Amino acid sequence: MELLPLSTPHCRIERDGHVVVVTMDRPEARNALSMDMLVGLADAWAYISAEPDVRVGVLTGAGGTFCAGADLKAMGTPSQDPRVVRRAQEIPDFHWKGLLRGAGALPSKPIVCAVEGYAVAGGTELLVGTDLRIVAESATLGLFEARRALFPMGGSAVRLPRQIPYAFAMDILLTGRAITAQEALSMGLVNRIVPDGKALEAARETADEIAACGPLAVQAILRTYRETLGMAEEEALAVSDTIGWPVIGSEDAKEGSLAFREKRPAVYRGE
Q: Which terms in the Gene Ontology molecular function aspect does this entry carry (predicted)?
């Protein structure tokens, strides 16, 4: 994979064809959030959206863990990297963008999450901002903020009850307890459980499946969900039609039908 210059001391950003792999890389601190990490994440999401040939991203953590949330001991400590300090000044709300908080922070392409070890507090908040979630069998999730008299500022108090049943969401948010991978699967919070050490491999397989689909179709499906959230059905269908009809008439759609008839893999160009 190609290491991209967007990488920072705590965030490794690599590209392999249509897929960008983003690795939170601070294993000595269980990948706790830092300025270096959040700036790298914010730049990674912007790159994934802006690059036409990138179709999907994968988010994971180094050293057998995902992310243990904010570093309470070093909260607010500035980066020692001049480029990171400059980018933090240039990116409005870089911390929220890094955490995938808000519609403007979400990439226009899907993000697959690969979780090993701890994905707690800000780690779970990041997971809630992704589109598909693969977790290792011994992974630990949870939003611990209430136990520390804090608040989940990454948006989970809003997002979680919209993604999983209310009672499950309140269990996670109000008790602040640790959640096992199996519980997360039963709640509908994650997609799959895989053996320890296999989360990234499984996430990459899923990312490759997405990358093989028509990119215009994939992006349109994501956009439709996000833009119609909370709308009445008739209003949402009108938005869906506006987004969907151009995809139906695209060159990629013609290629998909032709490839099906010719019994060969489709070659999509995002056109």
A: catalytic activity
